[in-house]
């Protein structure tokens, strides 16, 4: 997996709306990988990122969820859970590979990367979905938002 200090990878993927998304990683950005749409832990994690999304956006922080599910699966998941941030479809594992995330099991593990100024600034490996979004928000706000 990419480590802090590594250059941000150039990625491009399709979101749940069928739009191609190519984050530049110049501003603070959270990219979290999760195993599968509509599973218990992944639903908890997605809902927690959604609940904290206004605070992320208030701090100018972008959030992207990535799994090996299809665009259609992401669309159904986003609609069912009311998710408004981009879920990037990575069925061939190209985005995961760019971050060095293992896909040999046919899905990714639960890993989160924080990027800014064109580089990886933090990595959370094999995270517990419960409370993870809030932990990331606290860390990123302390690092990048004046007054935390």
Estimate the strand proportion. Answer: 15-25%
Helix-strand pattern: EEEHEHEHEEH
Distance between the termini: 28 Å
Q: What's the overall geometry?
A: globular
Strand tally, please? 7
Helical residue percent band: 25-40%
Q: Rounded to an integer, what's the Rg over CA atoms?
A: 14 Å
Structural class of the helices, strands and pairings? Answer: alpha/beta
The DSSP helix count reads 4
* Major beta sheet summary: 5 strands, mixed
Q: Which strand order spans the largest sheet, edge to edge or round the barrel?
A: 5-4-3-6-7
Low-confidence stretches: none
What's the oligomerization state?
Answer: single chain
* Overall pLDDT metric: 95
Written account of the structure:
This protein has helices at 40-58, 71-81, 94-99, 132-144, and strands spanning 13-14, 20-21, 29-33, 62-67, 86-89, 111-116, 119-124. It is α/β, with parallel strands linked by helices and 148 residues long. Strand 1 and strand 2 form a beta hairpin. Helix 1 runs parallel beside helix 4. The protein is globular, with a radius of gyration of 14 Å. The relative contact order is 0.25.
């Amino acid at each position: 997996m990419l480590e802090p200090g590594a250059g941000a990878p150039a990625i491009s993927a399709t979101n749940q709306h069928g739009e191609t998304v190519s984050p530049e990683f110049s501003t603070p950005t959270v990219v979290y990988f999760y195993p599968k749409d509509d599973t218990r832990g992944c639903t908890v994690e997605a809902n927690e990122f959604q609940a904290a999304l206004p605070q992320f956006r208030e701090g100018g922080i972008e959030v992207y969820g990535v799994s090996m599910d299809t665009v259609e699966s992401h669309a159904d998941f986003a609609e069912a859970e009311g998710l408004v941030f981009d879920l990037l479809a990575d069925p061939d594992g190209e985005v995961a590979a760019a971050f060095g995330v293992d896909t040999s099991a046919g899905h990714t593990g639960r890993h989160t990367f924080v990027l800014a100024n064109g580089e990886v600034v933090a990595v959370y490996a094999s995270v517990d979905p419960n409370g993870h979004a809030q932990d990331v928000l606290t860390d990123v706000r302390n690092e990048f938002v004046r007054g935390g």
